[in-house]
Input
Amino acid sequence: MLIEFSVKNFLSFKDRTTFTMKASSDKSLKDNVALIDKEKLLKVTAIYGANASGKTNIFKILALVGDMISRSNFNAPNIMLPITPFKFNDKSRVSPSEFDIKFMVDGIKYEYGFVADSKKIYEEYLTYYPSGRPANIFKRMNVNDYKFSRAEEKKLNEIKVKNTSNKFFVATATTWNYEKTQPAYDFLTEKLRVILSYDQVENYSFNKYYDDEDKKIENFALSFLQKADLNIKGYKVTKEKITEDFRVGVPESFRPLFPLDAPLYRVNTKHIIDGKEYELDISEESLGTQVVFSVIPVLKDVLDNGKILIIDEFDKSLHPYIVNYIVEIINDPDINKNNSQLIFNTHDTNLLDLEILRRDQIWFTEKDNHSEASVIYPLDNFAVRKNENVEKGYLLGRYGAIPFLEK
Output
């Protein structure tokens, strides 16, 4: 599970900013909290804020960290890292960015972080708590200086010579079969499931539907679709290969997106009207239905494997009832048995209800009008009564994080 992460000097975040999934002392909605080895962690958090306030940048940070680490071993010495500092300040624009993340794997706490710019990784560290106390796995300083425990020094000294200034040591060590970095590497590259656009999961989901021999996804999907009241009684997924005949009908500028022999999925949904069965191509369904259909296999994977699902614009094309239903699933300990987590941003104020989310599960982003720097903070920072109408308070600007329109 994710505990918290911090960032400094990246995109719109100039100063060190921390987002946490640690639960406060709030006693309400106990099912919304998981207890992992004395750590009380939230299962869901929602982030609100005006457009361009930094909501999406929070998710880009987590997506970038996982992506950079997973690709690290393929970096040639001259490959630039995709790190963008805060540009509206003369000092920050030429300074490296800083990232720190804390998480739990199999009941053990890990802390990982690095300092880097587009050219080099200047610092990097990995610490874990195998018996409740911190133990250093590795510490990297001044780009290529390393500190290891005496017991592991010989093994890791052999690995460090294989690393370069633009490669992450956590990835290099894992590639060379160093067992102590494996859990952290797996968490950072596999457990963080970031969706910046629903389009990016469509092919993944269609493939999951197609390969569903044991019908587990189908059973989950049909139950979900029924509860979402979408009137879909079944579906059929077939797979073909993209041919030149298909590409002829695609505008030339888009043809690189459809390489020859790549899989092409055909999806038909089944509806029963007055006892008679009808089929629709998935493209004929509403955009909201298409989004729900694409998200279902992702949600099942997250629940089955204890992953962290991070969604930008969660409510895009989704009815508030469906958004609320997914939040309920993640908060429900009888369904979410592997302590999966959901982090999302949204403009749907229906969830600003203290009977759905606790005060520590609601966060806000705001951008300073003078410096253009983003900050993120929880509703817990305010003296909010348990019976307070949070939705109304937010729309009135009581907690900040809303646009102020000139009249």
Remarks:
- The two ends are 45 Å apart (CA to CA).
- The chain has two domains: 1-196+312-407, 199-307.
- The mean pLDDT is 91.
